Amino acid sequence: MRKAGPLVYLTLSGAIVLSAFPLYWLFVIASRSNDVVGDWPPPLLPGSHLFGNVSRLFAAEDANFLKGMANSAIASLAVTVSVVFFSTLAGFAFAKLRFRGKNFLLMIILATMMIPVQMGIIPLYMIMVKLGWEDRLQAVIVPFLVSAFGVFLMRQYAERAVPDELIEAARMDGCHTFRIYWTVVLPALRPGAAVLALFTFMGTWNEFLWPLAVLESDNPTVQFSLNQLSTSYYTDYTLMFSGALVATLPLLAVFAVSGRQIIGGIMEGAVKA
Amino acid sequence: MARHRRGVLAALAAAASLALLAACGGGGGDGGSGSGRTTLVVKTFGQFGYDELYKKYEAAHPGVTVKEENIAKLGDYAPKLQQWMATGRGAGDVVALEEGILTQFKADPGKFVNLLDYGAGSLKGNFLDWKWQQALTTDGKDLIGLGTDVGAQGMCYRTDLFKKAGLPTDRDQVGALWPTWEAYLATGERFTKAGTGAHFFDSSGSIYKNILIQQGDHTYYDTSNKLVMESNPGVKAAWDQTVRMITAGLSGNILSYSPQWNAGFKKGTFATIPCPSWMLGTIEKQAGPENAGKWDVAKVPGAGGVNGGSFLAVPKQSKHQKQAADLVKYLTAAQGQTAAFQAKGNFPSSPQAIDSPAVQGYTAPYFGNAPVGKIFGESVKALKPLYLGPQNNPINDEVTNALIAVEQGKLSPDAAWKKAVGDAKRLVQ
Amino acid sequence: MATHLRPSTAAPPTRDAPAPGAHRPREKLLSRLDRGGSPYLFIAPFFLLFAVFGLYPLGYTAWVSLHDWTISGKGDYVGLANYRQLFGDPDFWNALGNTLGMLVVATVPQLVLALIVASLLNQQLRAMTFLRLGILLPIVTSVAAVGIVFSQIFDRDAGMANGLLGLVGVHPVDWRADKWSSWLAISTMVDWRWTGYNSLIYLAAMQAIPRELYEAAAVDGAGRIRQLRSITVPMIRPAVIFTVISSTIAGMQLFTEPLIFGQGPDAISGGSLRQFQTVSMFMFEKAFRNFDYGYGSAVAWMIFLVIMLLTAINFFIVRRMK
Q1: How many helices (H) and strands (E) in chain B?
Q2: Residues spanned by the domain of A80
Q3: Contact: A232, B290; criterion CB under 8 Å
Q4: pLDDT digits (tens, 9 = 90+) for B57-116
Q5: What is the predicted ipTM?
Q6: Residues in contact with B310: Cβ distance below 8 Å, sequence separation at least 6, in sequence order
Q7: Domains in chain A: how many in total?
Q8: Most CB atoms within 10 A, among A25, A177, B276, C50?
Q9: How would you class A98 by CB atoms within 10 Å of its CB: exposed for 0-12, middle for 13-18, buried for 19 or more?
Q10: In C, which residues are within 8 Å of B391 by CB distance?
Q11: Are C42 and A90 in contact (CB under 8 A)?
């Protein structure tokens, strides 16, 4: 591996400052009181109101923030596990297996990525009414258990990351296809799958329009709760900032875990080569 | 009306307790299996301030539970409402309708229970005339909803900035500065010349809207729902008046509800703003305790002002229409409206509630003890019934955007007017 | 990790693999069933769930787009009237232009930056974990947070962007008033949010590139940029295709960032003269603000068709480059 020079460190450090600043600033405002909002120059150092703001957050009327966090955690976890499993499975099939109609079916999957999401709300709600799932948590889980995006990503990733010889060798050993997937393909896809897991978790966690449409304020997801913190006419900034900050913490945890997987992949790549 | 309602309540209570008895096999009220209980689901947005009223209603109606499901922002609530109506499920038993949305439903009232069928006809005198008319179809046969609050409007102003500009600060004298919008403009010019560094008002949208509703009995539509925006001189007059204020440099071009608008209350970047009753709480919180007494409330120029307001309606998909209608009558009665005013500052649409000592005697400590109950009451009573057509709100949004474009210097007033008219025509296509 | 799976013909048969010749015909049949059927089995879950939760909404939207619609629900059948009206609607063309414009302004720098960042990260670094995680922080910052922070940054009167411009003597910019300024601000938001995301995809793909290739190239005297162009990009080509296509699709569906940028209850119109209204915002405005769900559905189908067209063009270019 190439050694990095000082210029690389400088560039990356600059990029990190830019990347981290909004998150830092979120923390700054979340720890302040409302009277700094709109000040120039803006406050750049944390204050002492973090605890007060966060306790206001959990007490906020009609927001049910704690429940929203729990609901989102359940939904995001369920969706992530399912999407990673089905996407790696289908992605492997599309990248490495031969079957009739493969290209056509892949095109269909691509096409489903192109459907504008906002329009599906009313027909999807109709389906939920038929299933009796309005205001239930499964309404924000089941429709998202598979993802066209995930299949496509895993297909593109598997093309290069899983050498054909490896699969053929496993076949020679008499492995049936699912076993090949499980013992050969899945481990090889791990870095890509970790990326997909991270994205899927983020996406579900950040989903807003559909939960707002199908759930009610007594059983919300976290973004729904966040949205309940301000009315059309009044925005309590420090409350919203603390909400956004607290809502980001679980993502940081997921990030730390999957980040290690992604970086773990690099070591493997070195060994493989 | 009170006697009548009590009769209905008593009958309902009796029916409900009978049902409860039947369900529980003669047992007491407690330990009921739940099958005898009726849960009425009320869908609201923003803050209606009904929590105490629900408790009282439940106490008076054994067997009835009221559950409110609230969405904080109207913009998020409206698509949900649309989806409940389209699918026939999810609307609960009582829905809150903002006036612009109610207007859209009037063309096709079939989705809601006709409250006249539930004896609401006798309640006409309990609502401001124009509020009652708003929920009544043109043929007078269908009443979609009963009024809750009205956004009774005053003119909020910064006393410290007025003082700096050499203007009076006493709210009666300030009100006397602007009997008309022309006089308001003149005051604004005086204020601007004084060079306080602040603008006279935030942005022109709410000014325009207030001028517009003083112009007669209809605005963009005539009562047969024909678009008359171009031929109605009132609309153009309101537009021209607003444009004169913009060209005189009175507007701060600060988008409503943006962060800089919120901060403006504290920093005093604008000196006046038309303030509906529900905005007082916003101003108090945004300006903060350190600015207590700097904001005050005077009357609006011209005759009266209102911005927004809501109704309660019973969707046909409710399985408890009769009980829901009864709850609507209870919540919108004078006492209910007064209680909501005391809870969240929602100004009543019932003359009895407006004239009640609780409202008339209400003063706002943060605003130099301004008698806002009185000021707002006079403001809404001065208004004449105004007919709004189906696409009233979207059209008004286009006009507001055209005014913003003038403020930004992006369009000349003439081009902006032409654009607004064109947009409106396409909207009703 | 793959060593224990390396085939070894001399190895004794395992439980999973019956001894060669023991049940030849049955084994062959099973193997053929497995080879022929497994691919379909593997992709079946996707298509099953998609049929229920994807296809129905799509078909329903098409059907609805042929109807008049009010806040009360579906009205009369109107044929293609919604589409005819759409083609004559200047607001639609404006929104389409904005969307394509922002797509170019945002996506091109974003993918180039992502490639640079990923290749910088794909080398031996001190504090590697910290640097990698740090650069990817925007991915985990929640949408709400992004919205709040960036509306402060691009505030006209008290925003940091104008504050910094002021330090170098530039007049404050009313970011929302012009096309160029609003597009720039929104593209900044988009790029801030998604550059790390794309570089993560590139980084994951780069790890599959054998190191010897770089070493051989270095021996040949190829510089860093040369290596990036002639080794990295060709080797991660599937990932590049993926990001180009998914960025195009995401760009065509751009919604959250401009909405957040817009502020206020009427943000959906994307500025006083619709300077930054995207097609998704236009669709939402028609369907859920003006309650004309039929018209909104027609817009949705147009967006769908435009994205298909763009993707086809993407594929065409990729084929040509092969």
Answers
A1: 19, 8
A2: 6-272
A3: no
A4: 999 999 999 999 999 989 899 999 999 998 899 999 999 999 989 998 887 888 999 999
A5: 0.86
A6: B48, B96, B97, B98, B99, B147, B148, B149
A7: 1
A8: B276
A9: exposed
A10: 290
A11: yes
**Which chains sit next to C, with 3 or more Cβ pairs under 8 A?**
A, B
Q: Which two tokens stand for residue A22?
A: 């909004």
Cα of B387 to nearest chain C Cα, Å: 19
Question: What would the two tokens of residue B388 be?
Answer: 């709004």
Residue B365 located in a structural domain: no
Verify whether the Cβ–Cβ distance C157 to B82 is below 8 Å. no
> Is residue A41 reached through a cis peptide bond, with omega within 30 degrees of 0 on the bond before it?
yes
pLDDT for B139 beyond 80: yes
Yes or no, beta carbons of C132 and A259 under 8 Å apart: yes
Residue A136 has pLDDT above 60, yes or no: yes
Identity of the residue numbered B27: G
- CA B314 centroid distance within chain: 19
pTM: 0.88
Domains and CATH numbers, chain C: 23-64 (no CATH), 83-321 (1.10.3720.10)
The answer to whether residues B132 and B213 belong to one domain is no
A neighbour chains, 3+ CB pairs within 8 Å: B, C
The three-class DSSP label of residue C273 is: coil
Q: Closest approach of chain A CAs to the CA of C13, in angstroms? A: 8
SS3 category, B297: strand
CB contact under 8 A, B259 and A38: yes
Assess whether B95 and B230 both reside in one domain: no
What pLDDT digit, counting tens, does each position of C157-181 carry?
878 899 889 999 999 999 999 999 9
The residue with tokens 């939402």 is C284
pLDDT in tens, A38-50: 666 777 888 888 8
Nearest CA-CA partner of B365 in B290, B284, B267, B263: B284
Q: What CATH number is given to the structural domain containing A143?
A: 1.10.3720.10
